[in-house]
Amino acid sequence: MTQTLTVLGLESSCDDTAAAVVRQRAVDPADILSSIVFGQNELHSAYGGVVPELAARAHAEKLDQCVREALATANLTLADLDAVAVTAGPGLIGGVMSGVMCAKGICAATGLPLVGVNHLAGHALTPRLTDGIPFPYLMLLVSGGHCQYLLVRGIEDFIRLGGTIDDAPGEAFDKTARLLGLSQPGGPAVQAEAAGGDPARFRFPRPLLDRDDCNMSFSGLKTALLRQRDQIVAEKNGITRQDRADMCAGFQQAVADVLAAKTRRALRLYLAENPVEPTLAVAGGVAANTAIRAALQAVAQEAGVVFLAPPLSLCTDNAAMIAYAGIERFRGGARDGMDLAARPRWPLDQSSPALLGSGRKGAKA
Ligand code: KG4
Ligand code: ZN
């Protein structure tokens, strides 16, 4: 099917209310005509994390306005669309339901086709949106709720090579920020502090590097951080700005080292089967971290593999990736009915056994 498709995407699976319009002419690269994201940081800041009920209510209140802005920015009306794509999971169920109901409402009123999209597939297909790369490629999906290596073989064909057995790295960044009194989401705050810190001053564990697989563990990092923080507080009756910066730098370096080492292993597995024009792509909120991006780029370079990282606005949650994944599914013939379900869990690779532990938002993975 080579027709031009213009699709509205909706995303509301965590704490960003997002709507976007993406257009793809035939097989050309897709154009993001608009991408609107309403964050909820202020709403949750007093609680130190995302409160699911507050998030769901805010999504329900803001989705209409978000859709209107996405259409206005694209200079289009609903009549110009070919379909509506919506995140149908995995994620915080109240938020996912808000998005799915909004999309169903638009489709019922207009007669537009409805396409449900897996949020993780949205992230995993982002390098095709940004760079139009062919299948297969290796994807490191690393965010607040998930961390996994995926061999991406097709729109709905993902093989998980490994992932975190407990916390996702974004979750570890968020907890680190909380323990050090920094703002949420923790990733950008910890990265900013780490810029002025010495990564060698504090020792952080690098778990599971002795295991020759692609699984990772990040939950020990916060325990190490807590111990170090408490030790300094006991010694000096408080922590200085420099102590905090050094802890952030050490923590960030440990995450980068683990991801780099495990990416080397994942690349070995991937290259054994896919030696022609190999590509390593990253996606998800933690892929916005400059130190982590640099570490992964170095690993790819060392292996002679092309490295792709999306612009920061497409690393964190957005609806352009959902609209684009919707275009891919729609071209593949997918259509969903009014019985489209909102799913809290929805692994991309249905054949892989669930990993031990799931983390705070790890059920998404
Ligand atoms: O993909 P995303 O927007 O939402 C999920 O699906 O989880 O990722 C959000 C996560 C948060 O945990 C946030 O702290 C982290 O991505 N993050 C970062 C950075 N920017 C966002 N982590 C490290 N460094 C960053 N610069
Ligand atoms: Zn996400």
Plain-language structure description:
By secondary structure, the chain is of the alpha/beta class. Helices cover 43% and strands 18% of the residues. It contains twelve helices and ten strands. Strands 3-2-1-4-5 form a five-stranded mixed beta sheet, with helices on both faces. It is globular and about 65 Å long. Mean pLDDT is 93; it is low at 356-365. The structure holds 5'-O-[(R)-(carboxyoxy)(hydroxy)phosphoryl]adenosine and zinc ion. 5'-O-[(R)-(carboxyoxy)(hydroxy)phosphoryl]adenosine is lined by residues 14, 143-145, 170-171, 173-174, 185-188, 191, 284-286, 288-289, 316-317. 5'-O-[(R)-(carboxyoxy)(hydroxy)phosphoryl]adenosine binds at residues 14, 143-145, 170-171, 173-174, 185-188, 191, 284-286, 288-289, 316-317.
Number of helices: 12
Question: How many beta-strand segments?
Answer: 10
Main sheet? 5 strands, mixed
The secondary-structure class comes to: alpha/beta
Average pLDDT number: 93
Oligomer: single chain
Q: Major sheet: order of its strands?
A: 3-2-1-4-5
Terminal Cα separation, in Å? 32 Å
Uncertain residue ranges: 356-365
